[in-house]
Write a structure and sequence with these properties.
By secondary structure, the protein is α+β, with helices and mostly antiparallel strands. It has 4 helices and 5 strands; from the N terminus they run αβββαβαβα. Helices cover 38% and strands 25% of the residues. It has a 5-stranded antiparallel sheet. The N and C termini lie far apart (42 Å).
Length: 162
Amino acid sequence: MDTYLDSFTRAATHSRPALAAQQIEAHVGRWHESAVLKLQKRRWTSVGPAPAPSEAGLFFSVWINEKSLRQQRVCYNIHALKLRSLAGFSIQSREFAAAFRAAFASSSGDWSHVSTDYGPQTLMEGWIDLDAEKTEADVAVLIRRFIPLADLIDRLLDQRTS
């Protein structure tokens, strides 16, 4: 897993200017026996971005674990956890998920093997083929694709400011 943590770190480092311009923080670490890259804005969580998944808030994650290694996949998703408790916003989780998915539909073709057929906590999830020699570059592509979705999340949150 250390090789993948290194690849995630390098991809995030290469993407740092674009992420910083959007106030997106990147964290790389281990979580539940997975190598994880997590992208999140401070305003998307009540407790501040941290390497581990949040108790409440929104974040994009990319991960590799034993199962994904067997399947030769790099997995990704956007989680929306306990949005009702997100300070400064009045959010109904199912309504927020529906609004995100409706807006995401026009760009879903840009995402490999993506699905939105989940409950309100997983806004979207997908995977790309794992090529160990290209992991860093492939993850950097996922990061670049996520940045416009960060703007979408901000717009949806702005509409739900309490």
